[in-house]
Amino acid sequence: MAKYLAKRFFRSFITLFIILSIVFILVRQMPIEGYFPNIEKMSEEQIQNGLHQMGLDQPVLVQLGNFFKNLILHGDLGTSRIYRNNVPVTEILAPKIPVSIKLGSLSLCVALLLGLPMGTLMAKYKGKFFDHLGTGFIVLINAVPAAVYYLFIQLYGTEFLGISMLFDPDKVSSWILPVFSMSLGNIAYYAMWLRRYMVDESKKDYVMLARIKGANENRIMFKHIFRNSFVPLAQYIPTSFLNTVIGSIYIESLYSIPGMGGLLVDVVKKQDNAMVQGIVLLYACVGVIGLLLGDLMMVTLDPRINFAKKGGDR
Amino acid sequence: MALLKHPKLEELEQHCSEALQEDLSDAALFSYAEFDEAEVERTGASNYSYWRSTLRAFSKNKMAMFLLILMLTVVLFTFIQPLLPGQFDPFQVNNNPTTGLPLKNKQPNSVHWLGTNSIGQDLWARIWSGTRTSLFIGIAVAMIEAAVGILMGVLWGYVRKLDFLFTEIYNVLDNIPSTIVLILVSFVLKPGVGTIIFAMSITGWIGMARFVRNQVLIIRDRDYNVASRCLGTNTWRIIIKNLLPYLVSVIMLRMALSIPGAIGSEVFITYIGLGLPATTPSLGNLINEGRKLMMSPNLRYQLIYPTILLSIVTVSFYMVGNAFSDAADPKNHI
Amino acid sequence: MKKVLALVLCLCVLLGCVPALAADTTYNALYSSEVSTLNYLTSSNTWDQTVGANVIDTLVEYDSYAQVLPGLAESWEVSEDELTWTFHLRKGVKWYDHTGAPVAEVTANDFVSALKYVLTAEYESSVSYLVTDAAHIVNAAEYERGEITDFSQVGVKAVDDYTLQYNVTVPTPYFVSCTTYGCFMPAYGPLLEEQGAEFATANDKMYYCGAYYLSEFEPQVKHVYSKNLNYWDAANVHIEKIERIYNAEASTLAPIMAQRGEVDSAELSNDIVEEWLSTNPDIVIRDRAIPDYSYFYCFNFDPQYDAEYEPDNWLIAVNNVNFRQSIMKAFDRLYSMRAIEPTDPESVLQNTITPKTFAAVDGVDFTELAPFEGVQDMYFNADAALEYKAKAIEELTAAGAKFPVKMVLTYKSGDTDWENEYILLKQQLESVLGTDYIECILMAGPSESFLSKTRRAGMYSFMRCNWGGDFVDPATWTDPFAESFNDDGTHKGNSYNKMDKMLDGDTYPETKATLEAYYAAVAEAKAVTADTKDRYTKFAAAERILLDNAMVVPYFIMPATYQVSKLNIFEGQYAPFGVSNLRFKYQHLHDDFVTIAEYEAAEAAWLEALGNK
After folding, report:
1. Could you say which of B147, B333, C66, C84 has the lowest number of CB atoms within 10 Å?
2. A244 or B48, which is more confident?
3. ipTM for the predicted complex
4. Could you tell me which chains touch chain A, where touching means 3 or more CB pairs under 8 A?
5. What are the φ/ψ torsions at residue C410 (nearest 5 degrees)?
6. In chain A, where are the structural domains located?
7. C285 and C596 in contact (C-beta within 8 Å)?
């Protein structure tokens, strides 16, 4: 196991390195406007000077080396030039990350707490009223764009609860709607797949054997069916956290939540190269770590899966 | 299972048992059979047809049949709508004939069935034009994903030498959240239908390729393929004749699901301001225009109607896709 | 006690006609676009400057009726040769930090340090042109270009702590109005030295000397301005606190939040304004229109867009005066304006590039001077358009142009109003001229750095452009079209319509002749300095050349947005230039939304006072 872990970490690290290098080189191909807030007013000489100061006149590979050197030695991601002139990227990201993590993890918890029981009940009462109700909900959530139903929830939810339309971190009540809205998609996702896996699982022979042996129906449901069906879902949890954070752009815009959601879009449009790089780095890290965690969770939950033997093939 | 319970077989058995009971004389029992060439060729298998069974299983699902009809109607109607009489041009600003000014934000009425938008264009015409654009994007993305995904997947799975390389590429690409790629690509390229299709397909094929690869790995070494290889059949023939037919149903399911996915992504891209210009109506920018009016109850129809159409398209593709994949599963052909 | 209370209540009822002022004077509003910097010395962006305007004072300021008032300077005078301006600073004004604690006194040195910062090329100030080109400060341009390195040679000097002197190269009667721009604001010298490029990147990296200090600044979260209780003119600052909350969807949410009482003002976008006018007619008011920017349509003489849109064909067409005339005559400006001004487009229509009320001489508005006579009849006329079209077809066919001529209209992505305007324009033009003659193509430009990627890069054929006067003289309205040169002496093309490029070479003699006449007329007008009426008339004559030859099509001044608000906007400082308009000083916060009746009364009173003064 330890050997597998070490190997897996090393692979993740390499992957991360490759992604970063690709992104870094790509960003270098973007127009140099991304380094100067008012390039129109600058003379060629000033631009060259500026590029020299930022070390951008060196060969790309040297720049890449410097980038990694600064990143590893000083945790330095460069300085924003357009989004917020002269402010270090890390300083901009620092206050936003915790907000997104809080919001993302809360909504994921809600999604698991509501989605898993829902899927289980739907599987248990397959073809009955509850199953149809749940299916209706899943269909609705998948059919109506989030951009639309979030607005309805905000408009009527705030009116119903009698709270402000905007988010205020100090008021617990103002967390309810954003977290709930964000979890809806995931609730539908987990409920849908859990139901499907459980229905498939319940047809398997070992379940029949357990029934014949006279095992308690609830025990079969949870110990056998649920546990086996949850394994493939567990792998998805860390990735869905990342998707929740990136997809939170709607919610963050609507409720004025100072998270990471819309940041990438913002800086991409503003062509702030250093910021683009910083954020992609962050997301890539979370993505890589997410996949790693997902695999680890699967190994933990399902003793039959043993990656060590397969030589780390995911 | 399927063979045992086949109705034709049951009929035959019944015939036999009836015959046994009626007449037991030699002449009745034995007679010379006519030589029938067709009968010679007949093998022991039943006339089980995969596609017929799939269709039969599918047609049993009333809901899916209804949605399939709905889906086909919507798709057909997007093409028929402009040809119908009395339709407005989706791009034309309709003016009030007396004042000569644009008929802005007119509620649904007998002339403009779904009302007009904020500069006086006919919403009914725009919604159908938008559906056309969105469906085109969705179908194009699905086709590209399928084509590239299958090609890559088959190579990846079948050509062992490439496996390592492809796996490494997959690991890198899969780690980059597709939303990021979508945002970057739509920004760098000129806004337009082509860009959106490209941006969505650039990551979409990876999932398909991996899926096909896994299936190929499973099927590749089954006995009949080993036999084919032993008989010297070349790789491409094995892939095309032996592998792909096996995958058709699942590939179609994935395609059916990636159409609503692509339409949804289009809404997202438009929302963040990197989508199609409003001069090209699509469900994404119709919904986005409607969102701005959401808070005015009297204008909300401009959000609701495009949303309804989008929901119909999404749900029908989604449910039909799922029902089809259930029906295509031989286990359900009993 | 009860009696007193009753009396007060009675008084309140009696005074009911006067809108009630709010007891809690915190003004709440949303904003949807974050400032890129707080650095008022370098930013030219209006939204960035709003911060500077409210937290830093200028030498002079304007009252609600555009009259100059003392600001940080108590008095000022100009020398006889009009080349030296001396300002006597108010004593005892202090710098405060973001907690409101005093730091140091504001002295003349702070103006000198600030100007040095503005002119230091390294800090990339985008407003330094106001110092060099508008105010003509001695040696400013040379210092900025690095030709001189000794800042003491630049024409700004702290004679003592309270006396500030500016030296200019040419008489600039409008100099005082220039000092209301951010680049003439003071900044605490030692802090500038210490922070350098990082100056004003956060609220604790700058000091304040204005009516407010920025007590909280969290980008994309909120801005909180707190009233500076020690402000020298605190009695005129009525709103205690301003809280602006970031919301990316403010245009959708603000109106409903205003209805629910969560914010004190909300802009109403054009797509919902008519709906609001019918459901809430009482409280829908407008913002105060400020004639600072004039909008006009330019024909591009140096198209650089993709070959698929046939830029070469456009170049042939645009150099034909009948072609340009046919467009100008076919263009029903009031129709396309409906996308931006849904109710009363005529009120903002302009028939000249220089907007109405910008300048006047001897009681005659600049736009009504003799050379502009009959200018209002030059525009929309479908019959005339078709006559010009016939002539243009004949001449252009001979010149080898293809029909339909493709005309690229470029707008900013995400600017729905603009896009809608072009949709209306396209349909209207094509219906008059026919699609066999002209084909309009709408092209979405980028939402960021829009101008440099479209207009300045020549990525359009016909486009709505705008220009704001930098100082009170008609000369400022010739600036967008001024000749611009490359190092080798050839024309680079001005950043608007690049028409001066046509002066090089002889391909289009007709255009060249028009331009030569125009530039000669401008030069002639600029040479007149003594007689204002003569100077203005000559500028008017020059502008008329552009209009007569349909080089530019005047359009409108940006109409004031519709809004609901608890502020009486007519109380605010008013000036067609500088940052005074952006200040909250003088404004009161009302209990309820200002009704249309109150608004109209206030507007009438304001207009009258403005006219009288």
Report:
1. B147
2. A244
3. 0.80
4. B, C
5. -105, 135
6. 2-95, 97-258
7. yes
